[in-house]
Amino acid sequence: MKALRFCICLLLLSATFIIASCGGGSQKLISKGSEQISLEVKINDCKVDPYVAAVYKTSILTWKVDSTDTGTYAMTFSGRKPVANASFQAHSTAPSTQAVKRDLTCWASWDHCYYDYTLTKNGVACPDPGVHIIPGP
User: Fold this and answer.
1) What is the pTM of this model?
2) DSSP string computed for the chain
């Protein structure tokens, strides 16, 4: 009997943890800026286009700095991330190409496939853009 109660408590605790870890994020990014389907994020003067890049679950996403911008940009995902590296850099002569992947929360629900990241130019923070993984090919 004690083992059954323990298993039930463990199951309820696990479900609560999963629900709590899946919360948040999706509305935060949409309200920050426009979203558009794109395989390339263009960066110029600390601004990204599109602000939120919507990509299919098996896409390759490239961060490309405009040729007139001489800065070095760092993209850093804290916590959840849709790419293998939590942090990577790009500048005008070296774009950064990353394979997109879903994490466990995104696998659980498409509503939780938003990933915000910090963009910095030469160590100075820019507005926080994001990546949204969507179902598709």
Assistant:
1) 0.75
2) -HHHHHHHHHHHHHHHHHHHHH-SSHHHHHHHS-EEE-SEEEEETTEEESSEEEEETT-EEEEEE-TT----EEEE--SS-SSS-SEEEEBTTB-EEEE----HHHHH-GGG-EEE-EEEETTEE----EEEEE---
The residue segments making up the domain with residue 86 are: 27-134
101: CATH: 2.60.40.420
Tens-of-pLDDT digits for all 137 residues of the chain?
565 555 454 454 444 344 334 444 444 444 467 789 999 999 999 999 999 999 999 899 999 999 999 999 999 998 899 999 999 999 999 999 999 999 999 999 988 999 989 999 999 999 888 888 898 87
CB of 109 closer than 8 Å to CB of 30: no
Q: CA-CA distance, 75 to 90, in Å (whole number)?
A: 8
Total number of domains constituting the chain: 1
